[in-house]
Amino acid sequence: MTLRPPVSAHDHSAGSADAPLTLVEYGDYQCPHCAAADPVVRAVQKAFGKELRFVFRNFPLAEMHPAAEPAAEFAEGAAVQGKFWEAHDAIFAWSRRHGPESLGADAFASIAKSLQLDGATLQADVESHRYLERIRSDFNGGVRSGVNGTPSFFINGTRFDGAANVEELSEALRALI
Amino acid sequence: MSILAAGSVAPNFSLPSTPDQRVSLADFRGQVVVLAFYPADWSPVCGDQMALYNEMLGEFRKQKAQLLGISVDGVWCHAAFAGDRKLHFPLLADFEPKGAVAREYGVYRESEGLTERALFVIDAEGIIRWSFLSPIGVNPGADGIFDALDALPAKG
């Protein structure tokens, strides 16, 4: 299972493009396993520092999780306002605190406020599906890469089939240094 | 018996998809069919195989392919499962005689009385163009299906 398309400037990435390790996650903002995996990724990023670049791609299971696509649209809108990772983390934190089923317009408004984002623009972005094409394109790339559920991780382009915990992810990453 | 390979004629079948509807492979002659055998309804994981394919129906439609799920569960079980997961494609019940169609495709697990997790891409003439047997515990995703659809000769 290899990553298609490869990581590019088009992606949301944290860390240097020259890092020897790239961890790509395909995730769904309303998936409880993705919400649980988010702090795991943060811990792994902290442990590997400059050696690791992290990329997040959207894989909303929209039929199963009705707020997954709007949440992704919200995060994409926040990216345009320069706060993708802040919004990304805040959505997962909300989901962990209040439950994934509580995600929706009210949650987004509250997150926008706490991150000092332009909430009216974000609401319009979500309602007009301004960034939906980009999200669908992430999704289709994931399908082609062999994503079979969320979260799915790829390390340097190869699917990681272990458990999404700090130990197993770190071990797989360390093996490539 | 092993899984039917590319080049084989896809055995026809006629199975119930709901309490009062039947679906035959022959109904789809002239269309590409993706036949996805799976062990059982109600797999407990988030993003299980059928739920995943359900999210890809737009892509299947673009490729002019009809997706059919098939397991040994009965029609009432399928109806409850499809309703709960909001599935928008037919689930066929290979229920009576149990697993008869799965046996014809070489994907019945005698020991457990379940179908394997197996995928078939059947062309417009009813010939199997690709088949894949996944380890029963592993959701195979859909990349293999789409690669196989891409490899079909362009329709004239």
Number of domains of chain A: 1
Query: Would you give the CATH topology of chain A?
Result: Glutaredoxin
Q: Distance between the terminal alpha carbons of chain B, to the nearest Å?
A: 36 Å
**Measured distance between first and last alpha carbons of chain A:** 20 Å
* Major sheet characteristics of chain B: 5 strands, mixed
Report the sheet with the most strands of chain A, covering strand number, pairing sense and barrel closure.
5 strands, mixed
Please write the CATH class name of chain A. Alpha Beta
C-alpha-based Rg of chain B, rounded: 14 Å
| Helix content, binned percent of chain A | 40-55%
Indicate how many domains the architecture of chain B comprises: 1
Largest interface in this structure:
A-B, 19 and 22 residues
CATH superfamily of chain A: Glutaredoxin
Query: How many helices of chain B?
Result: 5
Query: Structural class, from helix and strand content of chain A?
Result: alpha+beta
CATH domain class of chain B:
Alpha Beta
Can you tell me about this structure?
The complex is a heterodimer of chains A (177) and B (156). In chain A, 49% of the residues lie in helices and 14% in strands. Chain A has helices at 32-48, 68-80, 84-98, 105-114, 119-127, 132-145, 166-174, and strands at 12-14, 21-27, 52-58, 152-155, 158-160. In chain A, α2 packs antiparallel against α3 (84-98) and α2 (68-80) packs across α5 (119-127). Chain A is globular and about 45 Å long. Chain B has a 5-stranded mixed beta sheet with strand order 5-4-3-8-9. Chain B has a two-stranded antiparallel sheet with strand order 1-2. In chain B, β6 (108-109) and β7 (114-115) form a beta hairpin. The radius of gyration of chain B is 14 Å and the shape is globular. At the A-B interface, α6 of A face α1 of B.
